[in-house]
Amino acid sequence: MSSTTSKVLGGFKRLMRARQSLFTGDERAMRESRIAIRTEYVKNRNVTDPVQIEGLMVMADEATDMLLHGIVRGELNQDKNAYEVKIKKEHVDSMDSETITHVDPITAETSLNEETGNPDVVVTSTSGKGSCGKH
User: Fold this and answer.
1) Would the pTM of this model clear 0.85, i.e. be above it?
2) Which of 21, 24, 29, 45 is deepest in the core (most CB within 10 A)?
3) How much is the pLDDT for 77?
4) Contacts by 103-106 with C-beta closer than 8 Å and gap 24+?
5) For position 134, what pLDDT does the model report?
């Protein structure tokens, strides 16, 4: 196995582990993220230009970092009509004072809509840094 092949496979494995870390317990997100990652790797399977391969590896590393540090998962608490989001230490380290108390929903299904009554997002810090807020 060539050095490039092992680097590419390593990037693939890191992405898969990051998605598992983020989406554990969410079968839909696990399935869709697996398909999306695999699709991108298959799409670029025949790339041979070292510069282009390096660029793709940088993108894979950035995606891994985003999954591990830039995205938080919330769970719907139907009693409170809110998505509860726990901010972990690795997320706090990459957030500023404004973003630590505000989470933007990813999909239309999870966004706050006054007219339809979709749930709020409640941010809970799991470290001493930051504060809790309802958005």
Assistant:
1) no
2) 29
3) 79
4) 103/72, 103/74, 103/135, 106/71
5) 41
- For residue 134, which of 88, 83, 96 has the smallest C-alpha distance? 83
131, 133, 129, 49: which is closest to 120 by C-alpha?
133
pLDDT along the chain (135 residues), means of 10: 91 96 89 95 95 97 90 79 72 61 56 53 52 40
Tokens of 52: 């282009």
Which pair of tokens denotes residue 13? Answer: 């494995």
Q: What is the rounded distance in angstroms from the CA atom of residue 133 to the CA atom of residue 103? A: 10
For residues 130 and 124, give the distance between their C-alpha atoms in angstroms, rounded to a whole number: 9
Q: Which two tokens stand for residue 50?
A: 């070292």
